[in-house]
């Protein structure tokens, strides 16, 4: 009888173990497989079985992540505008609900991302109006949580690059490149292909078009500001100059002052292609980014 009871107890424990929410499983579906439908179904089921507020919070921000990503796939034609707005609004609501249970940098990041998407769908003026609250949330991620979170550096890089400068807004092309450099330097190269990050940085470098001599002068100025700043988002505005003119990116054999912006862009993109070819993680959806990268290399050379 005791043996039977012990066996039943072990079975119950194993059942509870396998019933518990597994964040690694969700992240694997999302990042490694891009199987967003499976991830969403798993998260919705896990939410009904969650046993604590913390667990619910972890599930909810992941639901916000997958809801936003699925909404990104909706055609951006005018007839689907409301559908996209509804999807992004749902993503934001899920992130806010997660935050009501537990404050995490992930939930703040996905709330900010959803707000930005809503602004984009509603047009340039609305997007401009969403920029400041979006930045405040992303700064909370990096400053209050000290997350050094790749995706949030990417968001800041996009914001500062696309927005106009003062007095209209806070756009700053040089800060944008520094944020994108930090994004590339902190990215997950094991579970993600990151073609978008490489391409965005290369495009920003092409657009700025500094010569090697100008880079050498400007990076020395940036180094002083980088060394003086203490708040992460302020410090990373000058990340490009953290080592002055002697800085050397991981994809380069020469220092930053020995190449122009466009030369670095070509080097960066060629590295991205070579890295991608060796990567075991490949998706059919990568084809468009690969074509953009090859076209940009052709334009630059």
Main attributes of the structure:
single chain, 301 residues, mainly alpha, 14 helices, 72% helix, disordered N terminus
Overview of this protein structure:
This protein has 301 residues and is mostly helical. 72% of the residues lie in helices and 0% in strands. The chain contains 14 helices and no strands. The protein has helices at residues 2-19, 23-32, 36-49, 53-72, 81-101, 105-122, 124-144, 150-162, 173-186, 195-208, 212-228, 232-235, 261-278, 286-300. The longest helix is centred in the N-terminal third of the chain and has 21 residues, at 81-101. Mean pLDDT is 92; it is low at 1-17.
- From the N-terminal CA to the C-terminal CA, the straight-line distance is 79 Å
What is the C-alpha radius of gyration, as a whole number of Å? 22 Å
Structural class, by secondary structure, is mainly alpha
Regarding quaternary structure, what we see is: single chain
What count of helical segments does DSSP give? Answer: 14
What's the order of the H and E elements? HHHHHHHHHHHHHH
Give the topology.
Layout: H1 2-19, H2 23-32, H3 36-49, H4 53-72, H5 81-101, H6 105-122, H7 124-144, H8 150-162, H9 173-186, H10 195-208, H11 212-228, H12 232-235, H13 261-278, H14 286-300
Helix pairs in contact: 2-3, 2-4, 3-4, 4-5, 4-6, 5-6, 6-7, 7-8, 8-9, 9-10, 10-13, 10-14, 13-14
């Amino acid at each position: 009888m005791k043996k039977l009871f012990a066996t039943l107890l072990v079975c119950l424990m194993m059942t509870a173990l396998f019933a518990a929410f597994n964040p690694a499983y969700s992240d694997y579906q999302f990042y490694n497989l891009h199987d967003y439908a499976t991830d969403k179904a798993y998260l919705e089921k896990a939410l009904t079985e969650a046993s604590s507020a913390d667990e619910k919070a972890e599930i909810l921000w992941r639901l916000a992540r997958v809801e936003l990503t699925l909404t990104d796939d909706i055609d951006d034609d005018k007839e689907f505008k409301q559908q996209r707005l509804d999807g992004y609004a749902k993503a934001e609501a899920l992130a806010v609900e997660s935050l009501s249970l537990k404050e995490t940098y992930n939930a703040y990041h996905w709330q900010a991302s959803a707000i930005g998407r809503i602004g984009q769908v509603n047009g340039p003026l609305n997007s401009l109006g969403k920029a400041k609250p979006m930045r405040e949330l992303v700064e909370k991620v990096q400053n209050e949580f000290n997350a050094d979170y790749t995706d949030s550096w990417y968001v800041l890089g996009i914001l500062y690059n696309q927005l106009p400068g003062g007095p209209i807004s806070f756009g700053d092309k040089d800060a944008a490149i520094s944020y994108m450099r930090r994004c590339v330097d902190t990215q997950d190269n094991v579970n993600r292909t990151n073609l978008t990050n490489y391409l965005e940085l290369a495009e920003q470098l092409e657009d700025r078009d500094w010569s090697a001599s100008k880079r050498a002068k400007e990076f020395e100025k940036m180094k002083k500001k980088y060394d003086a700043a203490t708040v992460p988002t302020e410090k990373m505005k000058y990340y490009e100059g953290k080592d002055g003119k002697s800085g050397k990116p991981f994809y380069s054999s020469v220092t930053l002052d020995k190449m122009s912006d466009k030369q670095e862009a070509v080097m960066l993109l060629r590295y991205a292609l070579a890295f991608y070819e060796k990567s075991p993680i490949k998706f059919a959806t990568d084809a468009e980014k690969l074509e953009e990268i090859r076209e940009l290399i052709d334009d630059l050379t």
